[in-house]
Write a structure and sequence with these properties.
Keywords: ATP-binding, Kinase, Nucleotide biosynthesis, Nucleotide-binding, Transferase. It catalyses: dTMP + ATP = dTDP + ADP. Its EC number is 2.7.4.9. This is Thymidylate kinase. With 180 residues, the protein is an alpha/beta fold. It has a single domain (2-177), classed as 3-Layer(aba) Sandwich (Rossmann fold). It contains 7 helices and 5 strands; from the N terminus they run E-H-E-H-H-E-H-H-E-H-H-E. The chain has helices at residues 14-27, 42-52, 60-79, 93-103, 108-117, 133-139, 153-169; strands at residues 2-7, 32-36, 86-90, 125-130, 173-177. Helix 2 runs antiparallel to helix 3 (60-79) and helix 4 (93-103) runs antiparallel to helix 5 (108-117). The radius of gyration is 16 Å and the shape is globular. The model has no long low-confidence stretch (mean pLDDT 92).
Length: 180
């Protein structure tokens, strides 16, 4: 099994690209499972609702821990004994580093300990789509922003900076300019 993860700020086109990659692989006879974070399990989808709800008044630390709770279940149910040739995941632990570490300014060491503690398998490839924040905001077509999307320009500038740092320090992370 090969694990490929897709990362980037809002509006970079991750969802479109992951769908295209899935179709391309399946056309070549590979079995493919598509996952998303948070989500991909009953438990994960409930956490997703809590995390994205504009009615949720939770701390940044709680947000981080809920992300890892959902991720832990996804790993247990989908990554520990996969039967597919490829698993494509819309966000993974790199998102927690970028969003909660850089964006929310939580401890990167603590996030690293959660990655180790939840036994997150390292992806074979992480495709990071990069785009300036203003363009990403303009591309988002839905009028109603969820709790995280409503975090503001400065937050997303920090997230983008975190992603760029990851692409420079982790060999599995490959940055692609999404400004096309």
């Amino acid at each position: 099994m090969k694990l490929i993860t897709f990362e980037g700020i809002e509006g970079v086109g991750k969802s479109t690209q992951i769908t295209l990659v899935k179709a391309w692989l399946e056309d070549r006879g590979y079995s493919v499972k598509l996952l998303r974070e948070p989500g991909s399990t009953d438990f994960g989808e409930k956490i997703r609702e809590l995390l994205l709800s504009n009615n949720s008044d939770i701390s940044f630390e709680t947000e981080l821990l809920l992300m890892f709770a959902a991720r832990s279940e996804m790993i247990r149910l989908h990554l520990e004994k996969p039967s597919e040739d490829f698993i494509l995941c819309d966000r993974y632990y790199h998102a927690s580093i970028a969003y909660q570490g850089y964006g929310r300014e939580l401890s990167l060491d603590f996030i690293d300990s959660l990655v180790l503690g939840t036994k997150c398998p390292r992806p074979d490839l992480t495709i990071l789509y990069d785009l300036d924040v203003q363009t990403g905001f303009k591309r988002k077509t839905n009028d109603v922003k969820d709790r995280i999307e409503s975090s503001g320009l400065e937050f997303f500038e920090r997230v983008r900076s975190g992603y760029i740092t990851l692409s420079q320090s982790l060999p599995e992370v490959h940055l692609i300019n999404a400004d096309a």
